[in-house]
Amino acid sequence: MSVSHPRASRIAVLGTSLVQQNHFGNETSLATSARGWMSWAEVLSHGRLSCPVHHDPSVPPGWEPSNRPGVSRFFSGLNFGVSGQKAIEIERRLPRLLQSDFDLIVVDAGTNDMMVETRQTIADTRARIASTLLAAGKTVILLPILARGIEKWPAGGAERAKAHWINRQSIEFATRHANCHVFDWNSAWVDPESEFGEPYAGYSNDGTHFSVLGGFAVGKALADYLETIVPRVPTRILPRDNRFDPVNNPLGNLASDLGAETTTEREQQSHSLGGKLVHPGTGAWLEAICDIDVPAHDNVLGISLRLKDVSAEGQEAIALAPFRAEDGAVFAFPHTQWKGALRTPPLKLRPGRTEPELYLDVILRPGSKPLEIDVSRIDIRSVSSPVRA
User: Fold this and answer.
1) How far is the CA of 20 from the CAs of 71, 88, 176, 243, 268, in angstroms?
2) pTM here?
């Protein structure tokens, strides 16, 4: 088999809740999540990487989260994560997902098997999943079994030993197969000072899944890792005259203002972006993207880009939506300075003529000092329908 190069930008992800939680939706909205490692890889790559999804309330058999009949993920696209699934259930979904258009796929499988299956069974199923994808011409990035806190896997328990063995098998599998690689997300997740290889403090909300800080750390590492594998997309350049024109440039920018300096002085504040937007017509699919530069700040709980269809049946598409606990508490953002590109999932305009709206939503802890964010290269435009026939 020859070594191939994936097309720029489009990244598929396959696995369990650790994958599904990069996105979440309901009847009226779809968002990338601030706890998501793929979400942060998209942001911190400045838009070079993309895991495209779109709103879809359907319930394909075998794709129900946590095996709850009739429950929808509320999205389709290249996030193939389904919470609660064992590796064999992920393997059964391969024929359907291989109907999608992608070249490179990041694979998580086996974490939900650790307490019920043998190490060999788990390793063999992971190898079969990778082999099927490779045979279909895909570039495969294997993820090791993600380390857990001792509240989930006891210190010195069998699960930890099995995970180390399985992860070694994945490395050896990748060395024997062209177009197969391993991204060790544990390298950004595990505290090297931890006796039992637990995640850094604050990186997980429950000892298993990602908090915002954990998603940021792993996403940053993944964006850096994929720089050597995924070709670069063209730099985003926004000539001021590249504006929407229904006759000559129906794919032009719908925004009139391409930048903004926002100052958040309250606990929650929504900053209108883009100036006076243009309505391109009912049924159009829109996507919004902008660059942001966030200074170091100790009390940030949320920074999201929100594209809103204000029609009676309109929906919202959100980039980097805040991650909330069951009691409504919001998990903190990184304290350090960071910059990147926020891109919303595509949004289909419902019947109506009122112009869509774009906002930068910021959440701070009570009593925080103001936060100034530089927003640039605001781009809102029509995109091709993401729905596959």
Assistant:
1) 14, 17, 29, 36, 27
2) 0.95
The edge-to-edge listing of strands for the beta sheet with 23-25 is: 23-25, 29-33, 316-321, 300-308, 357-364, 268-273
Q: Give me the helices (H) in the chain, please.
A: 17-20, 37-44, 87-92, 94-97, 119-135, 158-175, 186-189, 212-226
Contact (Cβ atoms closer than 8 angstroms) between residue 210 and residue 16: no
Q: Which residue has the tokens 């996030």?
A: 79
Region 169-181: what's the mean pLDDT?
A: 97
**Three-state secondary-structure class, residue 31:** strand
Residue 104 has a pLDDT of 95
E-state strands within the chain: 11-15, 23-25, 29-33, 53-55, 75-77, 79-81, 104-107, 139-142, 180-182, 260-264, 268-273, 285-294, 300-308, 316-321, 338-343, 347-348, 357-364, 371-383
The DSSP line for 181-230 is EE--THHHHB-TT-TT-PBPTTSBSSSSSB-HHHHHHHHHHHHHHHTTTS
* Mean pLDDT score, 194-218: 96
Spatial separation of the C-alpha atoms in residues 145 and 166, rounded to whole Å = 8
Instruction: Report yes or no: 114 and 159 within 8 Å, Cβ to Cβ.
Output: yes
CA atoms of 190 and 29, how far apart (whole Å): 33
- Rounded CA gap, 138 and 148, in Å? 29
Query: Hunting for tokens 């319930």 — which residue is that?
Result: 59
Coil, helix or strand at residue 362:
strand
Phi and psi, residue 224, nearest 5°: -65, -45
Task: Inform me whether the pLDDT recorded for 171 exceeds 70.
Answer: yes
Pairwise CA distance, residues 29 & 34, whole Å: 15
The dihedral of CA 19, 50, 102, 253: what is its sign?
A: positive
Q: Are 277 and 311 contacting, i.e. CB atoms less than 8 angstroms apart?
A: no
Spatial separation of the C-alpha atoms in residues 234 and 38, rounded to whole Å: 20
